């Protein structure tokens, strides 16, 4: 099952959702109170399902999707106005008030979608991608999400696997 990360400025909301998910058999990896904490957590766990309860003042949901969309599934739970302001079509939205069953169903579905779309990189490929990201970060002054996005976009634009392009960078033939 995918790692589940809950993010909300409200400690009460984080605790309630964590209890609901735990009682339904889901393991919550971490709860975050800010966008910066959420980004650090995503970088640490590398992939999973992120549940945003409302908005975080230092993190736009669309930017989160742009930076990490290939690694995470996002469930945004909030008032209709917040859901409508989110532009990324890949973000799953659930309007408040939402029933416990609706939340559990959405998390279950996103966990399954996440597992289906994860790239099946073997250990050495994952290490190569991480090494290429570090090289891009050092050479071009990119952040980790920017380096990941650069690798991903080049691979998509040129019809190659990201691990193949990363290997070229590590060998000195790319980047």
How would you summarize what this structure contains?
The chain has 175 residues and is α/β, with parallel strands linked by helices. The chain has helices at 11-23, 35-45, 61-68, 80-85, 100-117, 123-140, 144-158, 162-171, and strands spanning 4-7, 28-32, 48-53, 72-78, 92-95. The chain has a 5-stranded parallel β-sheet with strand order 2-1-3-4-5, with helices on both faces.
Features of the shown structure:
single chain; 175 residues; alpha/beta; Rossmann fold; Arc Repressor Mutant, subunit A; five-stranded parallel β-sheet; 8 helices; 57% helix
Folded structure, characterized:
With 175 residues, the protein is an alpha/beta fold. The protein has 2 domains: 4-117, Rossmann fold; 123-171, Winged helix-like DNA-binding domain superfamily/Winged helix DNA-binding domain (Arc Repressor Mutant, subunit A). Helices cover 57% and strands 15% of the residues. It has helices at residues 11-23, 35-45, 61-68, 80-85, 100-117, 123-140, 144-158, 162-171; strands at residues 4-7, 28-32, 48-53, 72-78, 92-95. Strands 2-1-3-4-5 form a 5-stranded parallel β-sheet, sandwiched between helices. It is elongated, with a radius of gyration of 17 Å. The termini are far apart. The mean pLDDT is 88.
